[in-house]
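Suppose a colleague, Dr. K., hands you the sequence of a protein chain of 813 amino acids and asks what its three-dimensional shape might be. Before reaching for any lab equipment, you can write down a predicted structure in token form. Begin with the sequence itself:
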Amino acid sequence: MKKKSIFLIAATATLYFNNAYAQETPQDSAKVSSIDQIVITGNSNPKKKIESSTAISTFSSKEIQKQNPISAAALLQRVPGFAVETSGGEVGNNLFARGIPSAGAYEFVQVQEDGLPVFEDGALQFANADNFFRVDNSVNRMEALRGGSGSIFATNSPGGLINFITREGTNDFRGTAKLETSTYGLMRTDVNVGGALVQDKLFFNVGGFYRTDDGIRKTGFKANNGGQIRMNLKYVFDKGYVKVYYKKLDDRNTFFLPIPLIQNGNKLKGFQGFDPNYGTYSYRAISQLNIPQAGGGFFNRNLEDGIHPKVDALGAEFKYDLGNNFSVLNKTRYTNINMNYTGIFPAGGPKLASKYATDAVKDGGLGMSNYQYSLVSNGAVVNPEYVQKLGFWAIDKQMNNFVNDLQFSYKFDKGNVTAGFYKSNWKSQQYWNWSNVLATATDRPELLNLVNPSMSPSDDGYSKTYNGVMDMTFLQRRTQTQGSLNDLYINLDYNITDALSVNGGLRYSHDYYKGNFANTTSANLNNSGLTIDGTHGFSTTTADDNMSVLGNKYTYWNYNVDKVSFTLAANYKINRENAVYARFSNGFRSPNEEAYYNYFSNPTPDKPLKSVTTNQLEVGYKYYSRTFDIAVIPFYSTLKNLSFTDVFSDGKSENTFANTQNYGVEVEGFARLFNNIVEVTFNGTIQSPKYKNLEAGSVLEGNVVRRMPKFFFNISPAVNITKLWRAYVSMNYYGKRFQDEKNVQTLPSFTEFGAGMSYQLGRIRFAVDGTNIFNTIGITEGDPRAGSPNGDGIIMARPIMGAAARASITLDF
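The predicted structure, expressed as tokens, is then:
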């Protein structure tokens, strides 16, 4: 009731201020005019958007404010060509660019801050790029490039570049402060201030946020808690500038994974005892893990820590005019990351408690002649209908990255040429410790013990569990991966006429990768002297029978990449408002971290480890005016040696390869109608991604690429009810997909609606934003860790979040 009252008060205040202050200055448009907009991402020099021969979307700080995305992934849903899965929560989400499939993360795009990567590889194991980045008021704008020149201006980015450009100070002291609450216990504060310490010379900007909330899905604990701060200092002199900056991120987020649902063709409904919109297995009653180790000591973990990165990034940027039309620009950054990652990963779907205990092992059961379930919490004997085996996965990662991008530019009458050297050293050290627990198959799960009551508690094998744990530390890994990237690139822009320009780029990558991993053996605690309850030894339980133990033998490996990427493009500006362009590009993606581990732990000479290579062709038409924008971009792409590296719930992973082909059309636009009363933003993608040119007889030939929708779009109309009062609705449609490459399990299409309104009172903005307002059950993925899916019936899938609302007050000063 208290939360509802907050929104009623906000609505009443909106109506009051609308009547009392109707003559105030109108709000900024929801969309900044694109006709004179300048873009820098994927270009050697800033240029007008209409003159850039790239597929690029831009979002100003005002646009981001009005969309008020709940995460970086939610903002990227507004970019055509990017199929984005947002069901993981605030972080850990997946982005697929132009139908390029992967195991997830941001494998074929690079996420940047101010033109340098957030981390060099955005798809390391359990280290999605959005784990280390947050959208707040210190972001000035975002530019999202698809395909095209991405492979020239960054590494491993044939799918595109996403560049978040942060605010800098100006001569005028300015700031913004925002306070936000929600229906799920959110309390968030954003602050950003900037100005001049010395007029025209020395500028500063400081911004950041702190947030805590219970999560839209009911975890029973604080699902998200933490924040970040960014600061920069810029000194401008006659021939250039120098800037230094620092970012500190310390944030903890719960990662949400598949839950059980009932599927019947294209229809979905909740599994009994499980709310599909708000339920989760990541719940307080199973949040603590404390496992004795075969080598001594204990491994303990707290699920409430979730994904917890601590990021420190220190960087500098220097530009200098060398004279005679030559200039030099150098960007450098050092990033250090320590991350604890803890999540609940279901090991298959719910099973009937009776069948799970008594079915033969070959049929997925435990082969018990008699069984009894009891609650770990109080020992009470229970008879659940369904039980669920859950992976309690804990990963620790220590990562660092030093990157430097040095480029020289020369401007001449007809264009410019830029040449650069890119150097990046990165390291990822990680430790895994995974166990499986047994719990009730409900959205408030409780840990279960399972014993054979016809046996004595002192008999060997009496219990299948140890305080609810079925498989104690069944998997350990200790690995290290390092990359040393040494890339030369050159980019030429040439204006043949005032209307016709051409662009060409070349990048040579001379990259080294190396690493090591500890081999493992198995052991148990039978002769350790430890007891499970103070009386009985570990011989009475099977939970410790296959514990993973790290050995002292290491496997060392190295892998070198020598590849050339290139692009050619032409842009014809028909007039001030119309342009057409065409571009061909060739790029690649180096093998990912899991691919290295898989290959070097079990080399297969007939399937050598290769980089993924891409060819892309796109043509585009752009029209930009003060009241209407549209970009229509047909594209075609092929990929070779695409690797699948899913890690399954038993700790094993696949390492298979395929080729794909995709053709489609991206559409993006904006319209301002009826004398600025109505505004409409829209984007959409139609594509046909398929497995092509595989080995003769392959059952995958011609199948739709897994997890790729053929059609998805977003449309958001807004009405300026008065000069100060604005309301909007949004519709996000995500088309039918297949969970697996065999196209067995269908992921039905779904439509998610949002709505909100805002009121501008001078420098104060009041806003209410609602997401998934109709509580749609929309699944973005099945369970990629379960192996081959079965189709209808009880399935495991990851739905989008249930309906939620947020209210905010923002002050600009």
